[in-house]
Every structure is written in structure tokens, then in C-alpha cells.
TrEMBL record:
It is an enzyme of class 3 (hydrolase). One of its GO terms (molecular function) is protein serine/threonine phosphatase activity. Residues 168-193 are annotated as: Disordered. Its EC number is 3.1.3.16. Residues 170-183 have a biased composition (Basic and acidic residues). InterPro entries: PP2C, PPM-type-like_dom_sf, PPM-type_phosphatase-like_dom. PANTHER family: PROTEIN PHOSPHATASE (PTHR47992). It catalyses: O-phospho-L-seryl-[protein] + H2O = L-seryl-[protein] + phosphate; O-phospho-L-threonyl-[protein] + H2O = L-threonyl-[protein] + phosphate. Residues 21-282 form the PPM-type phosphatase domain. This is protein-serine/threonine phosphatase. Keywords: Hydrolase, Protein phosphatase. Pfam families: PP2C.
Amino acid sequence: MSSSEHASMLASGICSQMSISYGIAALKGRCPAQADGVAAVPSFTQMSPEMDIDYFAVSDGFFGSYAAKHLVGRLHVAIAKGIEDELVADTPRFVECPDDVDGWWRKLVLDAFRVVDDELVASVRNGVPAGSPAVVALVTKDYLLITSRGATCKAVIYSNEEVMPVQLTSERRPEPYKQKEQENVQDTGGHVVGSSSNQEDDILFRPYFPKPGVMMVERNPRDKFLILATGRLWDHVSSAEAGSFIQTRLHTSSLDILAKELAELAMRKGSLGNVTLVIILFNNF
């Protein structure tokens, strides 16, 4: 599912054998149209339920509606093909390198971004295509794979009344910042299995399509919910404020209504553009 072109949108659903539920809000605010992209695709590979993976994504429409919606609407297709091709390969990489789970996923997701970016370049006849800022979450039984491109979109996990921000951007950051980011995750009960740091494949991404950052976080039974949102939410609502807002309303409203109310909070606090977010509730917390 993806957001409509000209109107605000709400949606909700249940996936992963009812262990996850989600709510979506994409509000256009004072903009003439909703240009952001948003998608939720449960169990999107042909290997489901053997490989049960749920896909959630939001993308900022800063570079245009078409680019944002193309990214979130096609990325899970490219990831699924990468998984299926790998599973039927003569020598799958996960068999050759069984201890490099994070490296396997990282390569698969980066390859999928390249495929989708190439599709966009091929489809744009006028102007310079650019890779939309986005944040993507692949939710598996054991891990959360968070992928982010650009500095405007952000993923935040809430666990045991604590806030665990997981923000990865394409901007090169100093090593102390990366180390502190991982410490923040671990201090709140998460375990960083791996994150992107290899610069060699940067050259495979065009200047207007910066390399995404990838972080794999081990799931914790205490995790409550995950929020993916564009910057027009986070510019006006802090991670702690968003978490408190959702936490106090979890048992009174459906997730799509909660998402809508959180987007409206950002607008009341000054956001003028599109506000797009997904709330993913881990029902087994």
C-alpha cells in the first residue's frame, strides 16, 4: 500500500502472524498535495512464511512525489528478488560466510537500492533524478534491519519506557559519533549486530543517490513500538515527546488514529508540509 497523490491517508493492519500491528498516517498539511511515500508490505517474499519478513518505509517527497513513491513502492520488490536469487544460487553467500549475517543483509539491501535507483534514472526523461531521503525497516523474527538515506527521515524504537533512537544518514560522520550511536542502542537494551562502514562501494552510488546507512539491531522482547517518520514530524516533536504521546494512548485508539494524531501534533507545533509516519507495534512486548 502507498499514499495517495493528492490527499491525506490513514491505514492500519496486522502482520507476522499477528505478532505485529501497524498504523500509517500521511497528512499533506498546507501543501497542495501529499508528496511523501509510505508503504507497509507484510511477508513480502515468496519464501514466506519460511522467511517471514515485514517491510515498512517512509520517504520524503523533497525531490518530488514520483521519486519518493517509486522508492518505497519498488524497494521491497528488489529486496525480495535479491533474497530469492540468493536462496537458489549454487553457493549462497550466507553459506560461504555463515558468521557474516549483517554483511549479507547489508549487501542485499544496498544492491536493492541500486536497482531501484537505476529504475528511476531510466524512467525520468527530463531533469536530474535524485534519491529520495527515506527510512526503511525490515522486521524479522530476530532482527530489525533499519536502512536510512538522507538526514530528514528517522526511526525510533521505544522499549521499557526508554527511547532508543536509531538514525543513520548518508552523511559521513566521525567515528566517535558512530560509536556513541551504538552505545545509545546498547544502553537501552538493544544489541547492534552490524552497521555500514565500508566506503569502497560508495562509488557505485551516484552523487544524487547517496549510499544508505544500514544498521541491524537484535530484537528485544521488551521492545514496544517503532516509529518511522519524515523530518517534518521530528523537526517539531522530539523522540521522547512522540514516545510519551503514543504510550499514553495505546489502549484508547487504533494505531492509524494514533499516527494521525501524532502528525497533527507536529502541525500544531509549526509543521507546514507533509507529515508522514508509520507506527509499528510489537504485540508481544
